[in-house]
């Protein structure tokens, strides 16, 4: 029985009957699985760093409730509120991302983090969804208002953000942004020659990254030829999947977390495969898939082009990140250094992803006539 009656006209009552409750349930379930996996994977990592065994688990247990609050508050917004908030966040996150180039913490050769009030923050995590929303507004403006400056502004915005990210360097985030932006171009409709041009630009960007960034070249070379370079983490991850089998070795019985430096973050999917087996891995894939499809099914029913483009781009961003993490752990693509949404440990990533899904929920809420209040 629902807590709120259909006749309840309070803010919470209207929210409950218009929001996508299925997606909320899926996110809570994924986050709960993530807490269990963080508890399983992080003690060994903490011990290697001479920290309290439950250091990462306790911090993630604080991040997740905070993230759910962010998700809820964001989902209360109107489409106009989404656009305004995204504009403010974009400006702040973009300036902070530039700041990482000068004042950022260098980790594994990349400067992506800033210390803010004693907390490590990765501003590019918030820059991604904010860019997607602004890009959707520009593309919708170009199509509906025949604004000839909007398309060039969208392209310029993408090139500007990609240029800053490449200096960190953060190729994985740039790839995600490019994919979300191309999804918006595809959804709005464009001539075949534009699609061909985007494909050529994508291939050119991939080739350029291979020659411009040594870490990209090493990862691609090892992916194509495992005998080249250091593939230690990938090799151990694949061993973990083989060891886990169908039902896993059991909670706490895994060994991969004892040897993988990123077992609690980038390679947490390997911990899931070893301790809980193929069964949990398939469940996670299904949950992510249903989440994305559920969001698209609601977004594409809307009559507001901005809503359709923004929600599609955000869902593509979310789904592609999950897919890239799982595929790289399984050695289906070169490693990207990208976390598994709501499963991997991380404060900035978890809260930014919650904000992303909150934006999707706000955009896909049921509204009279299926049009966003502008």
């Amino acid at each position: 029985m629902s807590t709120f009656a259909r006749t309840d006209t309070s803010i919470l009552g209207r929210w409950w009957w218009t929001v996508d409750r299925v997606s909320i349930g899926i996110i809570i379930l994924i986050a709960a699985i993530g807490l269990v996996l963080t508890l399983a994977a992080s003690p060994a990592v903490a011990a290697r760093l001479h920290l309290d065994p439950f250091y990462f688990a306790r911090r993630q247990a604080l991040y997740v409730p905070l993230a759910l609050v962010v998700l809820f508050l964001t989902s209360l917004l109107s489409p106009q509120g989404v656009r305004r908030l995204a504009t403010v966040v974009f400006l702040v996150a973009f300036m902070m991302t530039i700041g990482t180039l000068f004042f950022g913490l260098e980790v594994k050769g990349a400067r992506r983090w800033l210390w803010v009030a004693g907390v490590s923050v990765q501003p590019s995590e918030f820059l991604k969804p904010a860019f997607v929303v602004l890009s959707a507004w520009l593309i919708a403006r170009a199509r509906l208002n025949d604004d000839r400056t909007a398309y060039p502004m969208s392209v310029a915005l993408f090139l500007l953000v990609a240029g800053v990210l490449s200096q960190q360097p953060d190729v994985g985030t740039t790839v995600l942004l490019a994919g979300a932006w191309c999804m918006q171009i595809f959804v709005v409709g464009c001539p075949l020659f534009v699609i061909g041009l985007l494909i050529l630009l994508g291939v050119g960007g991939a080739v350029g990254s291979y020659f411009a960034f040594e870490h990209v070249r090493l990862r691609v070379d090892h992916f194509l030829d495992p005998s080249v370079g250091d593939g230690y983490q990938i090799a151990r991850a694949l061993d973990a999947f083989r060891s886990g089998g169908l039902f896993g070795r059991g909670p706490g019985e895994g060994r991969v977390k004892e040897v993988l430096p990123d077992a609690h973050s980038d390679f947490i999917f390997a911990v899931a495969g070893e301790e809980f087996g193929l069964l949990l891995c398939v469940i996670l894939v299904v949950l992510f898939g249903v989440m994305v499809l559920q969001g698209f099914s609601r977004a594409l029913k809307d009559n507001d082009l901005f809503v359709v483009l923004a929600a599609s781009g955000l869902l593509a961003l979310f789904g592609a990140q999950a897919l890239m993490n799982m595929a790289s752990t399984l050695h289906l693509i070169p490693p990207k250094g990208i976390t598994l949404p709501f499963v991997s440990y991380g404060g900035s990533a978890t809260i930014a992803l919650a904000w992303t899904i909150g934006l999707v929920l706000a955009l896909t809420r049921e509204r009279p006539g299926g049009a966003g209040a502008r």
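The radius of gyration is 21 Å. The chain has a mean pLDDT of 88.
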